[in-house]
Write a structure and sequence with these properties.
Elements (H helix, E strand, L loop, with lengths): L6 E2 L3 H4 L9 H4 E3 L14 E5 L16 H9 L10 E7 L5 H17 L3 E5 L5 H11 L4 E6 L17 H7 L5 E9 L1 H14 L3 E4 H6 L4 H6 L3 E5 L21 H13 L5 E5 L10 H17 L14 E8 L4 E8 L5 E4 L14 E4 L1 H8 L5 H10 L1
Length: about 400
């Protein structure tokens, strides 16, 4: 079955006009327009998919209307002069049930991932992250997920599928190919200390909003280690993103959200990006749709600045540093890219756990190297070691 059968073409009256100005993103993106053929995907770098599904939303039903308002704002933005090869595949045909929608999203993503195309899913509620994850399970790849969210969304075992419990559903899903889940930007008064403790017991990584905002550059290694990113606009403060039924006064500023997704785009490892929970019915002068469009623009900015310098197989072009930890009787090996100045550290993989081999080089920062030089174990190294063991 062709993936085009799962998709609805765009209205030419609404979107054809953007192709007229050569300096706009709407000109460089190949679109699935009604009455025209499906875009050629050979050599495509990034594919956009609008998913107007809100049956799994919690207090945010209008998010089903988000894809086209976001798309309009994105097409109005100026291009940055890269050799873009981007396709907009239109909007998903919503399934008869929520699970049918998940299955359709998964099927499309599997095909795109196999072709080396990075899917960008936008619109709809964040429970679509479950479908995003299952695509990797179908490909039998262990996966690192990063969620930018004010909540953990762990839910309960018997909860129906919803944006409140998708992380718990992923943890319990069989067969399970989840290697790690990292939350960026949680707010303690939304999650409680019991859920923080549960995240620690699961060896998941959780980074509180205030700590993240003190040093945004430390987000880069977290996102660089992700295979997929799920971004809930609830993590952005209401003043910057009012179009969300769960918006609150605190959260990331709009420019910080753009910085995070730019880091994601730059990651050679990251292969899919989901942007969820924009609700046009609650928006003010399309402010949230406009911010979502700018986040997508910054994701592409990052993508077209990828350095292709992950030291997994070839260590040429890297400086190698060995740090002997006297107290822990452990040596940590660091690699620094001469091209991008980014850092990685080696974490030993136990015998017989070859499926985790691609995770043994953990992205880190210069601060982790400094910590090791003080004979202190970098927390990032210890967290990765516990997961691999």
């Amino acid at each position: 079955m062709e993936i085009s059968e799962y998709l609805i073409p765009l209205d030419p009256k609404r979107f054809d006009r953007f192709a007229e100005q050569k300096n706009l993103m709407g000109h460089v993106v190949r679109k699935f327009i009604e009455g025209e053929s499906f875009p050629e995907l050979t050599g495509c770098h990034v594919a956009f998919i609008g998913v107007g599904e809100s049956r799994g939303s919690v207090n945010n039903v209008g998010c089903s209307e988000a894809p086209d308002p976001i798309r309009e704002r994105f097409y109005e933005l100026k291009q940055a002069g890269y050799s873009y090869n981007i396709a907009d595949l239109g909007n998903l045909r919503i399934g008869e049930t929520l699970e049918d929608t998940y299955a359709a999203v998964t099927t499309i993503l599997v095909e795109l991932l196999r072709e080396g195309i990075v899917p960008v899913i936008f619109g709809g509620s964040q429970d679509l992250t479950l479908a995003q994850y299952i695509a990797y399970q179908k490909l039998e790849e262990t996966v690192n997920i990063v969620g930018v969210d004010a909540h953990f969304n762990l839910g309960k075992m018997d909860d129906a599928n919803s944006s409140d419990c998708y992380v718990g559903k992923i943890v319990l899903h069989e067969p399970n190919f989840l290697f790690n889940y990292s939350n960026i930007g949680y707010q303690t008064y939304f999650v409680g200390t019991d859920q923080v403790e549960l995240m620690e017991k699961l060896y998941f990584d959780a980074y509180r909003l205030g700590n993240v905002r003190k040093d945004m550059e430390e987000v880069e290694p977290i996102v660089r280690n992700a295979d997929m990113l799920s971004f809930d606009v609830t993590a952005i403060r209401q003043s910057d993103a009012p179009g969300n039924g769960n918006a609150s006064p605190n959260g990331f500023y709009g420019e910080e959200a753009c910085q995070i997704v730019r880091y994601a785009g730059m990651s050679d490892k990251l292969t899919s990006f989901g942007l969820y929970e924009v609700n046009p019915s609650l928006d003010i002068r399309s402010q949230t749709s406009h911010l979502a469009a700018q986040m997508m623009w910054y994701f592409l900015e990052g993508y077209y600045n990828r350095k292709r310098d992950v030291p997994l197989n070839n260590k040429n072009g890297f400086l190698k540093y060995r740090v002997s930890m006297r107290q822990a009787e452990q040596e940590i090996v660091f690699y620094k890219s001469e091209k991008s100045q980014r850092w990685w550290m080696e974490v030993p993989v136990p015998n017989g756990k070859t499926r985790y081999q691609r995770h043994h080089l953990v992205p880190c920062s210069y601060k982790d190297y400094e910590t090791a030089c003080r004979d202190e174990m970098p927390e990032r190294w210890w967290q990765a070691y516990q997961k691999l063991s």
